[in-house]
Each structure stands twice: as structure tokens, then as C-alpha cells.
Amino acid sequence: MLLRSVLLLMLLAIPLSGASAERRVALVVGNAGYQNITPLANAQNDATLIAETLRGVGFTLVGGGAQVNLDKPAFDKAVQSFGNQLIGADVALFYYAGHGVQIRGSNYLVPVSANPVREADVDFQMVDVALILRQMEGSGTKLNLVILDACRNNPFGGRGLRSAESGLAQIRAPEGTLLSYATQPGNVALDGTGNHSPYSQALSETIRKPGLDVFQTFNQVGLLVKRATGGAQQPWVSSSPIDGSFYFASPREEPKETSKEAGKEARRDEPGIAERQPSPPPPPQASAPRVTANPPTLQQRALAFVTNDMIRSEGSAAEYLDYARQSIDDQVDYYGKLTSRAEVLKDKERYVARWPVRSYRLRTESIRTSCDESKATCRIDGLLDFDLSNPADGRKSSGASSFEFGIRFGADGGRIFFESGKIVAAQKKK
After folding, report:
1. In the CATH scheme, what is the code of domain 17-286?
2. CATH fold for the domain made of 298-429
3. Is the fold of 17-286 the same as that of 298-429?
4. What is the helix (H) or strand (E) element at residue 370, kind and residue range?
């Protein structure tokens, strides 16, 4: 069994080739004062906190700060302005705190004016997350980040939205995009009992730490939220392959203070606000954190290889098997037996035929990777949760499995020379 797309976020350890984050643009939205449903205690506070945090690490904010309590026309206008400002930018970031709903597998963000009484109202009263993704895709940015602290209970449960499901659905990330959810797809996040949600508090604290790349940042956020909620909430990340690594805060220095108490003079020197208040250019050591351009390590190459493998494995049987022919070594230690590539492919063909629909969720904290530089090989192992189904006969299977892969690198790229794993828990349904 191949490790699937949840490990995509690991690819973010690969440096961006020759790029620098000269322009970072963020749209931060916080909707709390809902007019027709239960207001939220912390969404506006969360957006303000994240906006100030992003300003401190070099982002230019659409509208000059957090955009709060937006109705549908204002939300649409903010998204359109975001798309316009992304032209020529290197990094795009969208953050949303507020109510969000999942309907028929699509995620919608809820303006404060929304009042749907039937499912057909959703397209006209809410904002589809796909709209934000399209603005990013067409901008030419090198890295796109979408952060959704919107996985709260469905506020329209009694409104006849029969297709609405708990939490948000997992989105297939477009090229060069990372999506972070406050909790796992389909689960519900906490609004928090203090001034901020557990997720936004952890995100703000972690973004400010210097020297963390994107993967390290969101991994630490996940651990902080998990501890803060006693394991009740576990953030989730999904990503497409990204040719690079990005640092929110420079590895060389702490980000500048952004609190109100810092005073107007300190704010004039913050990166990312020259459009609002001109100031002399900062010295080199105080410039906005930049994307690095270092050659990838062997470990990073291995993670990139596995990431690509996962993307291909979720395609059709024909597409995946065609890719597998090129990615499997001539001889493979396959579940304890030395096996030819042809025999491995036959086994995989049987597997995808039995389970045409496959979904996997990596237990991120279980991942272990080790590499032997002298042999140009790497091993990756850990645990994952799986959901399998066959629409033709109605069979379903779900549970957890261990996995282990060995990858050898050479002139032909990377090839799998070792594969193993076992089911640790399973439930089958007819």
C-alpha cells in the first residue's frame, strides 16, 4: 500500500529555486457578528491577531488590516481586491475565522448577512472556497497559503440544508498551494473560552518564531492545539507539490513587535506597510524574511518523491499503474519477499481494481525518515488511516495501517526498492 496525499505537506522542506519573497500579500477575514445565526465570540479577535502577526513578518494586508464582519457584497469585493493585488506577488495568504459549512463536498464561508432557507440559496449567500483558490491560481505567485479556522458546528442545521455535513471537506490543493484547517476534515473545531481560538493562538505564536519553514510551522501549530485541547482538536494540512521552502520569520532574527503598545514610530519600520506610511528602506539585516534557495538534501528529495508518488496513486488505475512502472525498481523487497517489478505491478493492479476509491490520512506525528548519503537511499515509515470503497459492489473498508518505503536515488531519479506494512486495525462493510 502506498502512502497517500496527506504527506504532501512534507514536500515543503524543498527550497524554492532562485526565489525571494519580495512581495507577500494577505487577505485576513474574521466574521463574528452574524445577523441571523449564533454570533461567534472570538472570530473577530482571531482575525485581528493574525493580521497583526502577518504584518510583523512582512505581509501587505488587503484593506490595511483584518476585514471583519463582512456581508456577501463586502466579502466578494475583498476577494476581488485580493486577486488584483496578487499580480506580481510572490506569496499569497488567505486566512478566515468564522462560520463555515460543507455542502456536497464543497466548502463555503459564511458572510454575516447569510440567511439561507434552502440549499439553492448557498451559492448566492455564501463564498465558495474554490473562488479564493482561483484568485490565487491565476496570479502567478510561487506559494499560496489558505488557512481556515472555520470548522465549527453547522449553524444552519435546522434550515433544510440536508446536504450540509459536520466540519469542512478536504480540498485537493492546486499547484503550489498549502491548505491548513483548524481541525481534521469533517471534524469540528473549538471557538475557545478565552479571547482567541486555540488554533489562532497557536498559529500566531508559531509564525513569530524565526527559522521555521512552512512544514515545521504547521506541525508545531498542530502539536500546540492538540495539547491545549487535550487531544479533542487536531489541525490538518493538505498540499500540492511546491518547489521550495518558505519561512514566515527570518532564520536570523525575531519578527518586529506589532502590538498597539509598540507605538506609531515602531510601526513605521515594519515590513509590508510601506504602501500606507512611507519610511526609509530597512537595512539588509532587518529586511522582510525571504524564501531561501539552497540545494535540497537527500531527505528532502525522498519526501518529494513520496509526495509525487501519493499524488499519482490517487488517480485512475491506468494513470497510476503507468507511473508505477517507472517508479519501481527492477527488484523490490516487497513485504518480505524479493519480487520482480512485473509481479509487484500485478499485485498493485489487483489492489486498485478491488478498491477503486481510496482515501488515506497520515498520522503526521508518526513519520520517521532516515537516509544513507553514501548509498543515496532513504527509508520512510509511520502510520496512516485509510478508507477504501468499491461503488460497484458496495464494499467498504477502513482502519489503520503501518507503512515503510525504501527509495534509491540515481541518474534516473528515485525508485522504490523496499515496501512493507501491515493492517493494525480494520473494519469492513458490505
Report:
1. 3.40.50.1460
2. Nuclear Transport Factor 2; Chain: A, (3.10.450)
3. no
4. strand 368-372
295-341 pLDDT, tens per residue? 457 776 777 677 667 656 766 788 788 888 889 999 999 999 999 99
Residue with cell 524554492: 16
- Look at residue 366 and tell me whether its pLDDT is greater than 60: yes
DSSP 3-state of 428? strand
- What is the C-alpha separation between 421 and 243, in angstroms, rounded? 29
Q: Cβ distance 129 to 148 under 8 Å?
A: yes
- Please give the pLDDT value at position 236: 77
CA distance 102 to 157: 12
pLDDT digits (tens, 9 = 90+) for 37-50: 878 888 899 999 99
Q: What is the CA radius of gyration of the chain?
A: 23
Task: Please report, as a single letter, which amino acid is at residue 383.
Answer: L
User: How far is C-alpha 238 from the chain's CA centre?
Assistant: 4
Give, for 329, the enclosing helix (H) or strand (E): strand 328-334
**Percent of the chain whose predicted confidence (pLDDT) is above 90:** 34
What are the extents of the domains in the chain? Answer: 17-286, 298-429
0.85 cut: is pTM over it?
no
**Interatomic CA distance for residues 10 and 218, integer angstroms:** 11
Please give the average per-residue pLDDT across 231-246, as a whole number. Answer: 76
- The three-point CA angle 290-276-77 to 5° equals 90
Contact 31, 101 (CB under 8 A): no
DSSP 375: T
